[in-house]
Design goal:
279 residues; two-stranded antiparallel sheet; 10 helices; alpha+beta; 7-stranded antiparallel β-sheet; rod-shaped
């Protein structure tokens, strides 16, 4: 350890505070700015590189922003705890080099003060750069939030479209999701099921869908509740299709055994089909 007068001459401002502290709040709060202020150029570069790697690995690659923030805070905390030791290590190295260059005590102290101390120029420049980064980040975040809010408002103004229908008596739900519903009816003399589905439309029209998917040739149209559906039936299979804007709505009805219940339920179901729009 160097003589206290040398260390005090090197640190300069806030010597007692730094030497008596076990945790550096400036390092924890504004690490790079404080390193530059204290002329710790290499420490600032190393701190930046490690911080950059943390962000690159956990945020950009693994998309874990919460983990990134947590690790960054822990990293800053550890560096703040070890700041005095790191600083003294550099101080001792610099003072040893200076003492080897001359034996004149006044010159040694003068060189130590010049080598150490603080840099107000570096502080001002780093604060300006940091402020610009904050302003840019704030602007980007503001625009992102504004876009989210605007998109949310736009969604509220758009018409929500869905297919509505009455489930015939006796049919039991097999499966249900936001875009797919399946129901089944079975007794001793009747066995039938139907599927109603909503999907993104990739066809020019309903005929193209029925022809491409089912190779249908006997396609007809029917108006149900002011909406024109296109359909065909073949071997007790009934397929209905309707395109509205960018959505394709379909009804698939299958009759395996029928004493009148399944065919009657088909009529009830198709008559209830309705495209619902609303704010």
């Amino acid at each position: 350890m160097q003589d206290e007068k040398y260390i005090e001459a090197y640190i300069g401002k806030n010597y007692n505070k730094i030497m008596n502290s076990t945790f550096s709040w400036p390092t924890f709060l504004v690490s790079i700015i404080y390193f530059l202020y204290r002329k710790l150029w290499l420490y600032a570069l190393i701190y930046y590189i490690i911080s950059f790697l943390i962000t690159l690995i956990f945020d950009s690659i693994f998309n874990m922003p919460t983990i990134t923030s947590l690790i960054s805070i822990i990293y800053s905390f550890i560096v703040a705890m070890k700041f005095k030791d790191l600083y003294l290590y550099k101080i001792n190295r610099d003072i040893n080099k200076i003492k080897m260059s001359t034996n004149d005590e006044e010159e040694i102290l003068e060189k130590i003060k010049k080598k150490g101390g603080v840099s107000n120029t570096a502080l001002i420049i780093s604060i300006v750069i940091y402020s610009v980064i904050l302003i840019i980040s704030y602007k980007e975040e503001y625009e992102r939030i504004s876009n989210i809010l605007n998109n949310t408002n736009d969604l509220k103004e758009e018409k929500i479209t869905r297919i509505d229908y009455n489930i015939p008596d006796g049919f039991v739900n097999n499966y249900e999701s936001n875009t797919y519903s399946s129901y089944k009816y079975t007794d001793e003399e009747n066995d039938c099921n139907f599927i109603i589905q909503t999907m993104n439309n990739n066809y020019d029209n309903e005929n193209a869908y029925l022809e491409n998917v089912y190779q249908a040739s006997n396609i007809e149209s029917i108006v149900i509740n002011n909406n024109t559906w296109y359909y065909f039936n073949e071997e007790n299979t009934y397929i209905y299709a309707l395109i509205y804007e960018d959505k394709l709505y379909t009804l698939n009805y299958y009759i395996n055994k029928d004493s009148g219940v399944c065919s009657g339920s088909l009529n009830d179901l198709t008559n209830s089909l309705n495209l619902v729009t609303g704010e």
